[in-house]
């Protein structure tokens, strides 16, 4: 992408100097943005534009052109692209709207554009985008004047959001490295830009506004790598617009679009924010604050209430508030009122109100302490001049300069929460100009500190993910089962077929025998010599319990005889006799913890695994976790541990721990199966009963994609 962001020459096809036109604004911002390379203006109706020669065609330009911006009516876009390719353009930015987003005819034009550029190796940005900015190259094709250079790079699917972001940044004195308006994104995709920006030494932090996700699987893989070295902050809208899927499985019903997005972002290390305020809070902090190497904070205030609130906030975000060592406390105590605590949080009470330098003296002791990774000041700093007397303001300013020095000297972040943050007070402005975050919201500031600490911890670990060993899968058996189902033009596997398929993949399934008569059922039960379960088998009955198709804990021939006939009669209320394949007889599983394990194929991210506890935990509390495949060993461990009901698996109230490794193996099998067989759309094991050793998958459901979907894939 180097020619896109650092071209030797640029052409504007459709350049204009008519005030207010999109072409005029973008041509002007390019010419006035500081770009040092050659700029060629193309407009067949003009001989001169902006005091420069205007060419009637890009083909009139001598030599190659590296980057072309196209702002012409839709019918002229394809010819303009063709001519740009002939001139050797490696980057083509199409501002023009009215193509793929308007219907099939526009999509056909986009298809031809893509074919043209794929052959030449050119990168397409857009169409229907607002342009591009590169601070180091002096390229501003956004039509927005005065964009400052800085360390923030932007990937956005909305032009007007880019307008808002640049305006917001100006108010905060923040600058940009790269800004890319993605538009319809028919060429280079989000994950490709992300990879480039991850390696771009001018980019400190990446922020992105997304309305949809086109290739979620590739995005997650790219973000996993990039987020290890740079923060990736995403504002993804549509959080409440998407409902629960209508799906055949419990997994599908629980996998609401936004829950999957949340899980995918966490898995990839993406920081998800809810609004632009949060986005810029974090972007500013990542650009200006030193990154801590741990998650321990010292909290200081002139009152116990603010300290208590901040300590609660810290712990809610996973930040430790450690008791300071005796040595550190002895350094702090001389600056406090007698009897005030110095253990952490630190309450300097009335001493700071008359002499704000007390604040900086206490923070220095904390900065020097090895058990402190960051310092957090909360309360009224900056407002003492208003509360006490104007002359205190000079002491506050002196303390502020001292705080800025400490951050620079010790390389630890300092956060300031002040009730006077937005009032332009000199002491607080000194802190802000030094890159120290000063915020009015205690919760927002602590959340930002938590994200900074999370990133520091991840960067410190810099761990390479490990993946489960390739599993032994009998592909021949799996292929035959799927072919058999397809031959009957079915999508859902019978439970006997699901049982056989999962066994072929290495999942331990309970033994079972298909009985077509009550006599066969009795013989099968006698062979198992334990209480048994009977389950209806029919391609028309997917939810057996809802149809009265299951009977459990059957202990003798009479119970089996009665249960068989009840199940058969219930089945006749749903389907025809010819569609009833029989009754599956299985031994009852030993007691254990019920869990649900599933897989669904998400339209944005591809295969998604789900895990949770069974019963009320999944039906009512929806206590489940998700991961995008392929899953690492770290993913398997974290997705099991993050559910609220995990203590029931690890052993609680005298219960023995359950076989978590067995659960991980089942999830790993599902991950590999989903990657190997794209025609498998959903899998459900509900419940899987987990024992101290091993697990019993007592009910299984597998759904294939429609034949039409497979052809499209």
Structural commentary:
With 713 residues, this protein is α/β, with parallel strands linked by helices. Among the domains are: 289-461, Succinyl-CoA synthetase domains (Rossmann fold); 475-587, ATP-grasp fold, A domain (Dna Ligase, domain 1), CATH 3.30.1490; 593-712, ATP-grasp fold, B domain (D-amino Acid Aminotransferase, Chain A, domain 1, 2-Layer Sandwich). It is 40% helix and 20% strand. It is built from 27 helices and 29 strands. The strands form 5 sheets. A 7-stranded mixed beta sheet has the order 3-4-2-1-5-6-7, with helices on one face. Helix 6 (190-199) runs parallel beside helix 7 (216-226). The longest helix has 20 residues, at 442-461. The chain is flat. Mean pLDDT is 92; it is low at 242-248.
Layout of helices and strands, plus pairs?
Elements: H1 2-5, E1 9-13, H2 22-31, E2 38-42, E3 48-49, E4 52-55, E5 67-70, H3 77-86, E6 91-94, H4 104-120, E7 123-125, E8 132-134, E9 139-140, E10 149-156, H5 159-172, E11 176-181, H6 190-199, E12 205-210, H7 216-226, E13 232-236, H8 250-254, H9 257-268, E14 271-272, H10 276-288, E15 297-301, H11 304-316, H12 326-332, E16 346-347, H13 351-354, H14 357-368, E17 374-379, H15 384-387, H16 392-410, E18 414-418, H17 426-433, E19 438-439, H18 442-461, H19 475-487, H20 495-504, E20 513-515, H21 518-528, E21 532-537, E22 550-554, H22 557-572, E23 582-587, E24 593-602, E25 606-613, H23 616-619, E26 624-628, H24 633-641, H25 647-650, H26 660-676, E27 680-690, E28 695-697, E29 700-704, H27 707-712
Parallel strand pairs: 1-2, 1-5, 2-4, 5-6, 6-7, 10-11, 10-12, 12-13, 13-14, 15-16, 15-17, 17-18, 18-19
Antiparallel strand pairs: 3-4, 8-9, 8-11, 20-23, 21-22, 21-23, 24-25, 24-27, 25-26, 27-28, 27-29
